Write a sequence for this structure.
């Protein structure tokens, strides 16, 4: 049986490494650091998305659906192969950016994700196959596979059209869009529905069908929002806006069908978890509204012109919506203990960095100057996130170690 608590800790360790790299990027503007900035950006993004988020999500999927199927040894092989690719990326991206060895390891990671997807589809117990949560989990893995089309096309685009081509950026945005709007968000929905199903609070089949259709349609169409930097036909603005609207409607349906009344009848989450879910819903709403606004040419141009607006949006999605959901679910299934003091420190760091990032974008839009201590302030607030994550890992490491010692003493 794989030690899933250790796997969750390892995912958190990758988050710490990504946060550390993020701090290096922040302090780059404060001190003279002998690094290649864009190489650290590549390492930071890959370890955050493929280390922390991917590993946390796959650990949850295994825990929920496959942990009782006696296939632990096969899962361990996939797990350790995935770690090999992640460590390889960590040891190459900071020093060479996109080059031979980093491309090899990131390509091997794609094969690791294919392996896990096949493993999940093959071994999913029959009792889950007709459930709403498993349907979302399978759709999430489908989006994970679809997203990989982006990286596969990059080589051909670079060799024929060059890295400055519009198609090069579209390939990257294709990958990111289906990775976070498809794979990540859909997996989190699957986990939420699984919890409801296990406590017999499943939403009606009619409501789920409407939600599922609208969400998938929204994910597909909203990809066109990622192409608006190229100023395409107004038709694509309309399709992208419809996609964003469908996603908003889908989550409204989900919240209405599974919301507060059902949860109050059979309280599933602790007070802390409930408050965090409520905050996540608010952040998801902000994210969806921003996505919808980007279908309007004026706001689309803002996002293209002022990069900090896009960075703030991405951090809102990954550090806010996705990470807060992961904290709740990992805590709920007792894979990680989310200590309130460190969680609140994380929230403070997240909120302050978001305010500062959007402030910089607004300042550029308004053609005014930043306050003199802006970059040191952003660097220091980023440290709060790092400190919070280190605290969380320390608490969990000693908790698991103490639990293991107790088990050994009993035996």
């Amino acid at each position: 049986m794989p030690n899933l608590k250790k796997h969750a800790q390892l995912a958190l360790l990758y988050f710490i490494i990504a946060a550390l790299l993020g701090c290096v990027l922040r302090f780059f503007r404060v001190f003279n650091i002998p690094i290649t900035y864009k190489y650290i950006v590549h390492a930071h993004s890959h370890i955050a998305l493929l280390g922390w988020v991917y590993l946390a999500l796959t650990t949850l999927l295994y825990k929920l659906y496959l942990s009782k199927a006696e296939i632990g040894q096969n899962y361990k092989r996939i797990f350790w192969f995935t770690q090999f690719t992640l460590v390889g990326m960590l040891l190459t991206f900071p020093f060479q950016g996109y080059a031979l060895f980093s491309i090899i390891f990131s390509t091997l990671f794609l094969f690791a994700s294919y392996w896990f997807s096949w493993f999940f589809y093959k071994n999913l117990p029959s009792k889950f196959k007709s459930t709403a949560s498993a349907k979302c989990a399978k759709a999430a893995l489908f989006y994970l596979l679809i997203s990989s089309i982006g990286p596969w096309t990059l080589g051909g685009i670079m060799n024929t059209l060059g890295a400055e081509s519009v198609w090069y950026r579209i390939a990257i945005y294709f990958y990111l869009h289906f990775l976070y709007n498809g794979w990540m968000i859909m997996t989190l929905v699957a986990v939420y529905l699984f919890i409801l199903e296990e406590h017999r609070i499943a939403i009606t089949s009619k409501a789920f069908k409407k939600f599922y259709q609208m969400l998938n349609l929204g994910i597909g169409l909203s990809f066109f929002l990622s192409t608006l930097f190229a100023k395409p036909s107004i038709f694509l603005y309309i399709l992208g806006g419809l996609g964003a609207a469908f996603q908003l409607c889908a989550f409204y349906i989900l919240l209405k069908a599974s919301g507060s009344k059902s949860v109050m009848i059979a309280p599933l989450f602790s007070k802390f978890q409930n408050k965090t879910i409520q905050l996540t819903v608010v952040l998801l709403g902000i994210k969806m509204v921003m996505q919808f606004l980007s279908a309007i040419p004026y706001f689309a141009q803002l996002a293209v012109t002022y990069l900090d607006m896009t960075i703030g949006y991405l951090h809102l999605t990954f550090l806010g919506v996705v990470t807060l959901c992961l904290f709740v679910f990992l805590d709920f299934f007792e894979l990680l203990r989310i200590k309130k003091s460190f969680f609140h420190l994380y929230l403070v760091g997240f909120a302050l960095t978001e305010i500062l990032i959007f402030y910089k974008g607004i300042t550029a839009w308004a053609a005014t100057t930043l306050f003199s201590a802006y970059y040191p302030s952003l660097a220091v607030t980023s440290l709060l996130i790092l400190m919070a994550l280190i605290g969380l890992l320390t608490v969990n490491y000693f908790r698991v170690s103490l639990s293991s010692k107790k088990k050994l003493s009993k035996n």
Observations:
- The chain has a mean pLDDT of 91.
- Residues 356 and 377 are 8 Å apart (CA to CA).
- Residues 1-125 form one domain.
